[in-house]
Give the backbone structure.
Amino acid sequence: MTVFLWGVLPYAAFALLIAGLVWRHRYDRFGWTTRSSQVYESKLLNIASPVFHYGILFVLVGHLVGLFVPESWTDALGVSEHAYHLLSLYGGTAAGVLAVAGILMLIYRRRTNAPVFRATTANDKVMYVFLLAAIVLGMVAKLAHSSGTGYDYRHTIAPWSRSLFTLQPKTELMVGVPVLYQVHAVVGMLLIALVPYTRLVHMFSAPVQYLTRPYVVYRSRDPRQLGPRPDRRGWERAGS
């Protein structure tokens, strides 16, 4: 089971991610969207959506730093283990709370607004379950092992994560990891595999081209210079 969870499942999730992205881009390009329901309701969406997106962005950045920045790098910058633990604990918890609050508001909006609820698919429901579970499990795991210097995942989970990219996964590092962290990692990998088949696929459609495209120039027209508009054939003035 150890080899399957930490040596096979990560690559299976990545393979499903890539295959799903290729399939969606090739056969469902018009479905590559968030399927926005803003036309049905926008007041709550304008609050919930930014809260969720800022929260999940901070969560992703925190995971990238925690898993892929070695401890030697933070030591070289003068960041002590205690300071890193406090930043990870309070910063990660705040980001998680922000993301969860946004998700709950989005779920409430979908459940209480009839048109939005009718536009909700089975994939959306599965996505919300895995997304909420991954974030909550991460916070619970962190808070459950927060005493003292906390659980130092940079000696186990982080090296295991980096070893996946060398195609030599160090599965033995995950044997002694607390169960909550293990469940959080498994749910996270399943969520990665689900991304292409849900509305989360839009995260791969960042408008990078806007950085290099030419400006669109808008000019106002002076109505005094337009003159009268000629009548078109086949149309008559109202009341004539």
User: Anything to note?
Assistant: The chain has eight helices and no strands. The helical segments are 2-27, 45-68, 71-76, 81-112, 114-118, 122-144, 157-163, 179-194.
